[in-house]
Write a structure and sequence with these properties.
alpha+beta
């Protein structure tokens, strides 16, 4: 079981993202609409687990090409892991710790990631509040990632509610955050 570690923001995280993004962009240049740095490492000043989250955005019709293209870089497709319209991948060996997701444009999973990231980037008080919550949860649940993730749910849902996510989308987010993490 891995330990839940939340550390202060590292100004190197954007460069780690760029280093990871470049080969993906090259491999998927004919189908990639964008590659987004999402999650806590994408928000300046926010404490985070030192794991960069990447959303690779393609048209829904290009998902199979995207899966194959990421596979050519050594990424292992894991399916959607219970989240519709989002394909998760194990990272290739030897790269900085990260999560890579392939998302069709317009998907709820992508919209969720972008909405939370953009809200936090624009709201310093929310960054401070969320950072304190994450550190508190990591101290409370140092060996329980599921409880750590579930403990963040209400805060994240409140952000999504503020930016106008519909109640059905919010119910799905809560359901996903309450399932065991893999």
């Amino acid at each position: 079981m891995s330990k839940v570690i939340v550390q202060d923001y590292d100004p190197c995280w954007p460069q780690v993202f760029e280093d990871l993004r470049s080969p993906i962009q090259n491999a998927l240049s004919d189908i990639c609409l964008s590659i987004e740095h999402v999650g806590s490492t994408a928000v300046p000043g926010l404490p985070a687990k030192p794991v960069v989250d990447i959303d690779v955005v393609v048209r829904a019709t290009d998902l199979e090409k995207g899966i194959s293209g990421l596979g050519s870089l050594g990424y292992i497709h894991r399916g959607n892991l219970g989240i519709a319209e989002r394909h998760a991948f194990n990272q290739p060996a030897g790269l900085p710790k990260h999560h890579a997701y392939l998302c069709p444009e317009g998907s709820t999973a992508l919209a969720n990631h972008l909405a939370v990231r953009d809200y936090l980037r624009a709201n310093d008080s929310a960054v401070r509040e969320y950072g304190a919550l994450k550190k508190r949860l990591a101290a409370q649940y140092p060996n329980d990632i599921d409880s750590y993730v579930e403990g963040k749910t209400n805060f994240l849902v409140s952000i999504l509610n503020q930016v106008g996510f519909d109640p059905m989308s919010l119910a799905e987010i809560v359901r996903v955050n309450k399932r065991p993490q893999t």
